Fold each of these.
Amino acid sequence: MGDCIHNILYLGLIFVLIIFQTWEKMKRTVFFVLITLIIGDLNAQVRYGINPESVLSIQGTSNIHDWTSKANTINGEFSLMKAAGDRNLPKNGKLVDKLRLEVPVKSIESGRGPVMDGKTYDALKSEEFPNIIFVVKENNITGITDNATGKFGLSVTGDLTIAGSTKPVTINVSSQRIQGNSFRFEGSYSLNMTEYDIEPPTALFGQITTGEEVTIVFNILIDVMK
């Protein structure tokens, strides 16, 4: 009888130890799950679409006059960190999780007729490389300009591809959160066409020549996708 009671107590003790160990493992598992969920929530992204009021133009010079061509189509994929929707924007750190802009070359028009536009398309090798592409690799909020109006600075580094040639670029962007969770990104970037293996267009058998330096000017509006 005594041995039987001893065995029962022994088995009971083992059972309690198993329950205790299982509970400790469950607590650790729950803890790690909660931490993962919290971190995941902090790093969550929100997808945005490009507002049709966005504007992108290319400005340059010639031996006769300055010129401006406008892109009639801007395609893109945007996702911002969840912190972008907070009441107060962070003073530094990453804002853009993903950004890819594409401008169809043949959507660019100079307003000076199809002949000049055709020369632009040829210079940009539109048949072989139909899109100008910009993909963000790194970005960082450089400071809050005006918290009341949602204005802040953003430094963006990425790859710019024109006519099949890709170069790393860094652009300082004037940014603003407007109308809740919509954003405006404004800025410009100057480049030499020859760096992208582009021969500056000419007209009238070379009597009109364009300068090698051009400036891409942008005013991009994005809205939360529904």
Note: Confidence is low (pLDDT under 50) at residues 29-43.
Amino acid sequence: MADGKSKKIILFSVIGGVVVIVLALGLWFMSHGTLKIKMNVAADTLIVTDSDKDVVATITGQNEATVKFLSSGTYTIDIKAAGYKTEKKEVEVGWISSVSESFVLVADSATIKAEFADAEAALMYQWQGKFLKSEMVLAISQAGGGNASGYNQTGGKQTELNGTYQKNGENYNVTLNELGNSAENGQFVFTVNNSTGMAEGYWESKDKNTKVPFKFQKGDGKAKPQNSKVKNQTNTSEPSEYMGLVILSAKYGTAGKFYDVTHSLSNKIRNGKLFVNVSNASFGDPDRGHPKSLTLKYKYGGQVYNRSYREGMNVNIP
């Protein structure tokens, strides 16, 4: 009987110990503080440090984040985004508490102007070289704010490009997507060496099954506008001013990530009219997995109009 009682005591002790451990772990996890951060633009870097200046979290390329803390205390949020003034703020986070902070980053006009000038000087060119068995021209006709657009031309065919760039030291990393639904379209991923002017990288098909490396020399002059005449090009549109319809500005994407598609829309004007479906197929995808819209400002019949179109809608002007 004594042995039976001892076994029961031991068993209940073990069970009780497990329960205590589970409860302790639960309380420990519950005691963590949580800091939720939201921004109006995607931050290049978001760094959270504690009172000892130790880095608690580093987040890049997002406009919202959630950080959990092991202890209560004072934490510093430091946010940096290209073209915007740096934001820095101290917050108090306690145990079993959830703190939310929202930031509206303000554009830094001087920084933006300098960044645009640097990007234009380095990127708005034509590059030429062998691509498979043909000669290709790869051009960036507009660059600024991390967005770039242009075209590639080979065998008399010209394809519009939209994408992004990021400065990497003295060089620029560029990704340009070929627009349209053709299965032959893909994307150019390359680096522009600011010292040599070379553009080196690869073209990759949509299905990721084909990758073609290239190394192009910089041409003699700036890139031609996308709606300029090119030999054998099927685009028969005239400049939008002549037709009475002027695209003043156009952006496609989300608040944090978007493409400047002003030139792309100007290129789609036919006989003074513009018809285009608002979609990734038309403009590329600046922010995967998020619903996008087209913000458009244009002039027609002497009047200036501002319009917004959700993804999937059609633009039909006039």
Note: The chain has five helices and 21 strands.
